[in-house]
Amino acid sequence: MPKYPKPIQELVDSFRTLPGVGAKSAERFVFRLLQLPADKRSAFAKRIMELTDVIKQCTECGRFDVQTPCSICGNGKRDHTTICVVAEPQDVEAIEKTGEFSGVYHLLGGTLNPLEGIGPDKLAIEKLVARIKKQSPRVQEVIIATNPDLEGESTALYLTRALKPLKVKVTRPAKGLPMGSSIEYADELTLSSALKERKEM
């Protein structure tokens, strides 16, 4: 016999697919939603539906926005000669907060992780190579801003080899980001310093 009525159980199972959400947390989320007034519950559902109906993925960089190209790729005032490669959408926002970077971005959609079955074919690496070739010789530098952990470093090395034939300068954020840290959670001063003093790979 099911633990909860089918609609409740299915929503619990849906919440459990999110990173870091276990069975107990998923149940708390669902029952908290059930305790909300109907209008607030409907507003919550509407915001989720807008992720499908309104939000688009940029055809250039892969960012999520209400338009494509996104507000960064479509901005003529940005420096389109420099592409900053990041793993996740949150990394873009972290870098933007520093005010240090005026170029454009490219989202990989994660990092290489053979143990979880994430190989080069699961990331937007080929798309990056094609983008640089298409925009050559406009693109002059690619900053690989993946996290300074095992997966991030492995991804950075793979990208460096993949981009070498394109004769483009490849750099990596320098000091200030300790091994094992996450770009998303780095403070603005540390991240700004790392971007300023990036080193060529």
Structure description:
The chain is α/β, with parallel strands linked by helices and 201 residues long. The protein folds into two domains: 47 residues, Orthogonal Bundle (Helicase, Ruva Protein, domain 3); 123 residues, Dna Topoisomerase Vi A Subunit, Chain: A, domain 2, CATH 3.40.1360. Helix content is 42%, strand content 13%. Helix 6 links the parallel strand 5 and strand 6. Helix 1 crosses helix 2 and helix 4 crosses helix 7. It is elongated, with a radius of gyration of 20 Å.
Secondary-structure map with pairings?
Elements: H1 6-16, H2 23-35, H3 38-53, E1 56-57, E2 64-65, E3 79-86, H4 89-98, E4 103-107, H5 125-135, E5 141-144, H6 150-163, E6 169-172, H7 188-196, E7 199-200
Parallel strand pairs: 3-4, 3-5, 5-6
Antiparallel strand pairs: 1-2, 6-7
Helix pairs in contact: 1-2, 4-7
